């Protein structure tokens, strides 16, 4: 056996051993990361007093009934959380959707829930805005009279604070409520920039809890998901988000959708 052959065999052996060691280290790194992630994100956090957890209003915008909608909505009625409410928002009267929601509400009477229809809310908002415009005209007339009176008597100063307070709407900042952004056109109809957001405004204004969760109709939740999200909502946190993963999609198109969303 020549000297070069011995060197070649030794180098090949060392390279093979190093490759095996690197592969082992990579697997140990992945196993360590998975173990830490499982410990970090899947450990059960139990607060000292469940009553201290803030109430949460869950807003569910719905458009149509699909094959998984009933099962998805059912998971929200089975959440393990002390105080929460479900606020369902529809654009128009849909007998199938309403029947499905009412069936779930009857099946889980202990869960607070309400149903809102966007078209009815739009009509009410339009009527309220029309009434406000009439009030504005009256206030403007009164203000003109007050201004005329103040010319002759400076101590009579017109006051508009009550009118402004009655029309003032909170702004959106963290958990504060926001303005609806609706406006009446010259034709008297309401301008709706985003129909989906507008459908949720009725539920948003009626929400009774300080925190709210917006969840699309195609989402399902595990029993402890809301509990885990609430624990992340500390004093220095303004928004908690969970990236969903796609499941229960049948066929080739469903498989492509699952892969695309999961990668995203």
Automatic annotation (TrEMBL):
TM annotation in the entry: 6-39
UniProt GO molecular function: ceramide glucosyltransferase activity
GO biological process, one term: glucosylceramide biosynthetic process
Organism domain of life: Eukaryota
Membrane topology annotation: Multi-pass membrane protein
Signal sequence, renumbered to the chain: none
Locations listed in the record: Membrane
Keyword Metal-binding: no
Key words of the record: Glycosyltransferase, Membrane, Transferase, Transmembrane, Transmembrane helix
One cellular component term from this protein's GO annotations in UniProt: membrane
Compositional bias segments (type: Acidic residues): 129-140
Region described as Disordered: spans on this chain: 123-169
Protein's UniProt keywords contain Transmembrane: yes
Amino acid composition bias (Polar residues), ranges on this chain: 148-163
Protein name (Swiss-Prot/TrEMBL): Ceramide glucosyltransferase
Organism: Rotaria socialis
